[in-house]
Structures are given as C-alpha cells and as structure tokens.
Amino acid sequence: MKRCIAVALLFFGGVCLAQFPPDGRPQGRAAYPESEAAAAWRGLAASYVRTALKDQTLDKDPAFNARVDAVMAAVGAAVAAIDPRFAYASWKAILIEDFGHGAAAFPGETILVDAKFVRTLQLNDDELALILAHEAAHVVAGHATMKLSFMAEFLGKEKVPTAGTALMEFLAKDSYAAAFHPTAQLQEREADAVGAAIYFATGYDTQRALRLFDKLALLESGEAGAVTDAHDPAAIRKQAVCAVIAELQRIHARRDSVRR
Ligand SMILES: [Zn+2]
C-alpha cells in the first residue's frame, strides 16, 4: 500500500519534501534527533490541552466526541495500512472549542480539532475524515520536525541548541512563520496529496468529502484573504485531491480487472 503514497507524491510533484525510501523513513537533514523534536511538539500539544482543560473549552458532547473518535480510528487504520511505521500507532483527535485553527497535527499522533469549525461547517463524517487524513499526512511526512530544522538553519544551532528552544523561538515571532511560508505552502500541498492517499484507504465516500472544499471556498470569499495561510485556494486543493484519488481508483480498477 506504500504505493498509494508514491502515487500521491507523484501528483504532488515539484519539490518533494518527504522522500519515502525503501525503509519507509522520510529523508532530510534533521537538525535534532527525531525523538527530541517529537517530544518538543508533544509538549506543545499537551500545553494546548492543559489550557483547554483550565479554560473548560474541551468539547464535552459525548455523541460529537464518539463520532470524531470513530472517524479518527478509521483514518488511523488507513495510515497503518499505508505506512508500517504507524502500524501500532494510537491516533487521538481532541475537540477544543474555538481552538483557532481548523485542525492541527502533532507528532505523537495527536490531532487537535476546532469543535466550532466542525459545527459551523456542519462537516459530515466523510469531510471530517478528509480533514483528519490531511492532518495525519503532516505527521506521516514529518513536517513538524522539518519546521525545527528550518529554525536551526535560519538562526544557527548555537542560538537554538535544542528542539525545544527552536520551537519556542518559532512561536515567539511572526517573522519566522513568514520566512518559513514558502516551505509551509509546499508542506500543505504534500499533506493534501498524501492525505488524499490516506483518505482513499479509509473507504469513505469521495464525492461527499470533496464538498468540504466548496465550504472552505465560501469561507475564503468571506475573508480578506489571510496572508499567513499556507494552503492553496480551496478550488485548487479540490482538484489536487481529486487527481490523486482518481489515479488510485484507476490503479485499483486495473488491478481488479487483472485478477478477474
Ligand atoms: Zn495542513
């Protein structure tokens, strides 16, 4: 099934951020040991959850939480089917009111989801699965680690000797996010491509999921255009995700016809 990711990355094209060599581990110049970088990000995710607990903004609706848990389990199983590094991973999606981002993924297989965003857009399970697949793709591709490596290169490792200091520094100034923006755009395109492959493996309905981008497009038209948003316009994202899924459908149809 790793072929799914290969197909996705083929469509992603251009500068490929995460390479998937035969051993399945992304390559790249990591400035910090993987475990140290992951620990720094896990600490940040934990701090968001602690703040939500303190502010009582963790969503407590049992039916809503159960629905998100079920979709997360399906997406986690799809990731496990595609990438053996995540065969035994336990993914968690945590609903936080007014989190401020639609969703954000962290190493440790944790995805924080803005509960208000899901409610406002009235996301069905298919749309939710597409969002969680996109977020899981950020983790699969090691994007968080690359952000810290960027900081080490940008500032020099003597200024940010540890992954934790690199992360704190990144969060401290908007100018770092601006400098990282071109890479962030590539990361978002890669997450859409790999996320589409993950989504395809979930078995959720593609046509129903793609309506997500129409909803996002409506949001875009109502905004002044967020300069800091690294995502492509929703209409372009829809085409990119469609192309990956269509190619995977063709591959599967061909394989099925050969078997018959
Ligand atoms: Zn993303």
Descriptive overview:
- The protein is mainly alpha-helical.
- It has one domain.
- Helix content is 66%, strand content 5%.
- The protein is built from 10 helices and 3 strands; from the N terminus they run H-H-H-E-E-E-H-H-H-H-H-H-H.
- The chain has helices at 2-12, 34-55, 62-82, 115-120, 125-140, 143-155, 163-172, 174-202, 206-222, 234-259, and strands spanning 92-96, 103-106, 110-114.
- It has a 3-stranded mixed beta sheet with strand order 1-3-2, with helices on both faces.
- A hairpin with a 3-residue loop joins strand 2 and strand 3.
- The radius of gyration is 18 Å and the shape is globular.
- Bound molecules: zinc ion.
- Zinc ion binds next to helix 5 and helix 8.
Short description:
The protein has helices spanning 2-12, 34-55, 62-82, 115-120, 125-140, 143-155, 163-172, 174-202, 206-222, 234-259, and strands spanning 92-96, 103-106, 110-114. It has 260 residues and is mainly alpha-helical.
SSE inventory with pairings:
Layout: H1 2-12, H2 34-55, H3 62-82, E1 92-96, E2 103-106, E3 110-114, H4 115-120, H5 125-140, H6 143-155, H7 163-172, H8 174-202, H9 206-222, H10 234-259
Parallel strand pairs: 1-3
Antiparallel strand pairs: 2-3
Helix pairs in contact: 1-8, 1-10, 3-5, 3-8, 5-8, 5-9, 6-7, 6-8, 8-10, 9-10
The structure holds zinc ion.
The largest sheet, given as strand count, sense and whether it forms a barrel, is:
3 strands, mixed
**Unreliably modeled segments:** 14-27
Shape: globular
Bound molecules: zinc ion
By DSSP (H or I, 4+ residues per run), the number of helices equals 10
Strand content: 5-15%
In which range does the helix fraction lie? Answer: 55-70%
User: Can you write the helix and strand succession as a string?
Assistant: HHHEEEHHHHHHH
Number of domains: 1
Strand order, biggest sheet?
A: 1-3-2
Number of strands: 3
Q: Please give the alpha-carbon distance between the first and last residues.
A: 20 Å
Specify the structural class: mainly alpha
Global mean pLDDT: 89
